[in-house]
Amino acid sequence: ESSLDAVEWASELTRFRDLERGDALGTGAFLTWTAPEAGRLRLGYILKPRTRGPRIPTGRNDVDCVVNANVLRGLADAGLNRTEGFEDACRYLNQVTANQRFDTCGLYYPNTYYFHLAVSHAYRSGAACLESSRTALLRHLIGTQRSDGHWRNSAGREDDLHATLMAVNALLNFAATSGAEVPPEVREAIRSGTDWMISRAE
User: Is 194 exposed, middle or buried (CB count within 10 Å of its CB: 0-12, 13-18, 19+)?
Assistant: First the structure.
């Protein structure tokens, strides 16, 4: 049963969705910031003290794929999968996956595999609507692993260790939802990725 705090949090989230926002995408997914938009960005808005409430760094709210996956994880953990916007966020994330926009959809997460990890957490928590993403992301993880076992970040700075850590953890989450039998290629990818990380620590 959901706690009152979780229900209030979910209710607050529904106030901040990508709906009827002029030039916005109209995805229906959740916005990143639970704060009013500034419209035209003004210096007074940027410098306003924290005691006067939250502010959006750019003045304009946005839709971030990793943020939406994290929201779905929180809602699913609380048993609030019927929250308004849940299915819209799922559709948005499944579209990101289908279009392979891993490098550009996470505005605040400059690593290709942040998305895979966040989606895997949400799916493991009970966001079953991400099944198509799970299948495609597993295929992408297996297909982009390097021959020595590591993954390479193609979004932002080189950060192979961080990318590999997130990729392995995403595989572990997906493996935990695959039933009694984990596919051998997933087991091997986890093993070789773990071995590579251990070798880097030696």
Answer: middle
First to last CA, the chain: 46
Q: 3-class SS at 171?
A: helix
30: which strand partners?
A: 17
Radius of gyration of the chain (CA): 18
Full-model pTM: 0.88
* DSSP state at residue 17: B
Going by the DSSP 8-state scheme, the letter that residue 88 receives in this structure is H
Q: Which residue has the higher pLDDT, 118 or 38?
A: 118
Q: In DSSP terms, which residues pair with 17 in a beta bridge?
A: 30
**Are 68 and 29 spatial neighbours (Cβ–Cβ below 8 Å)?**
yes
3-state per-residue secondary structure call for 40-69:
CCCHHHHCCCHHHCCCCCCCCCCCCHHHHH
| Residues 30 and 17: beta-carbon distance below 8 Å | yes
**What is the band of 134 on the pLDDT scale with cuts at 50, 70, 90?**
very high
**135: nearest Cα among 150, 151, 123:** 123
Average pLDDT, the chain: 87
Distance, CA of 116 to CA of 124 (rounded, Å): 12
